[in-house]
Amino acid sequence: MQFQKLIKKLCDVLGVEVISEPNHIQSHAATNITQNTNKGKMFIRVYPKLSCKLETGHAMFEIQSLSFFSNKGINVPVPLTLGKNLYLETENQIIFAYFYLHGTPICRTELSVELAKNIGLFLCKILEISVKYSREVINEEPFVNSFEYIVQIANKIEKEIPDLKNLEIWNIMKERTKIHVNILNDSPKGILHADYYYENILKDEMGNVVGLIDFGDAYHGYILHDVTIGAMEACVLEDEIWNLEIFNAFIEASSPFLIKNSISFEQFFETLMADCLRFATYTISDTLKCKKDLKSNIYIGRYEKLLSKNFKEKLFEIYNSFVLCNKYYLKFCS
């Protein structure tokens, strides 16, 4: 279906009028179309039908995740009703649309202690709802044992970039992830955003976090990953400098979830390490396109930083001050 015909069909179904030319952006799996209408700016996602999921994303699960969170009062894009469903289906495509949310994506240069606190508090609200997801996962979308899956996609990228096998730090990353493959077995599961990254988080003029976008990687799995991804992306500033004051603020704000679910520092730290490997696999091809050597990938660099005993101890001190100490205090008071 040509995009012009697709947009016309969507607008006819929704009863809106086009007021500008559309813009097309090709993402990893979907074609994204932005279209100004008389009722607001509309975002259209066009997914090819696939026999299996791509990365962790799945069109139908993305739609279901957005519906689940929006119905629970979390400000996420709301899929528009297109006839009888929240999507249109052609022989080769699945299409859905929503209007843009109010708010501005956070820029890296805006990251601060106060903003990290708000990001962590907002995430706690999401996680509290995420664990309530109980509907059967649709379209045979499997539960993802995240560590095992990360190793699988690392093996996959090695076929495209064989030199990775000769990179010592890469092999260390893979081996450590394999060793800890079952470390999250007793931790809570739910809908995982899987990219709790500042540019996907919306704020208002006062710096309040007001919404979350881009559920293209959402899957059903261990939701601690959203905490570790959020912590890392909130506190690593320009020039890959880790700001521990910001990390401190994020952990303090996220501590109710960590305490309630008895998340140990080892679980948190090893998940953080595994997510460095996850995002290294997603970005290593772009690293090469920039004519840089493999080791210059920022997530490999972050992993090497985490290998420092001194740095790990600093993270532990922060984690301990808000999570472990408070947990023992609550036990004492109960």
Automatic annotation (TrEMBL):
Database matches in SUPFAM superfamilies: Protein kinase-like (PK-like) (SSF56112)
Pfam families, per database record: APH (PF01636)
Highest rank taxon of the organism: Eukaryota
Domain Aminoglycoside phosphotransferase: from-to ranges: 37-250
Transmembrane segments annotated in the record for this chain: none
MF GO annotations: amino acid kinase activity
Gene3D superfamilies: 3.90.1200.10
InterPro entries (alphabetical): Aminoglycoside_PTrfase, Kinase-like_dom_sf, Pseudomonas-type_ThrB
Family note: Belongs to the pseudomonas-type ThrB family.
Record's protein name: APH domain-containing protein
